[in-house]
Amino acid sequence: MRYWSGEVALPGTRPPGKVGFRLAAAAFRWTACRPGFQAWQRQAWAYYDSTPEMRYAATWIGNAMS
Hints:
With 66 residues, this protein is mostly helical. Helix content is 39%, strand content 9%. It has a domain of 30 residues. 0% of the residues are buried.
């Protein structure tokens, strides 16, 4: 449920005092800079794939940040 000024707005209703309230969203895809893998990235993935401790640590940190 959404709250505006302490009042509950039911789904499909407008917030109090917001006649004609609309939400606009926009996005675009960033495709200008897509370089290929570099040598250090291949080494990092090889280390990630070959070392279980590295995979565990990276997964743990990734989960903590999500």
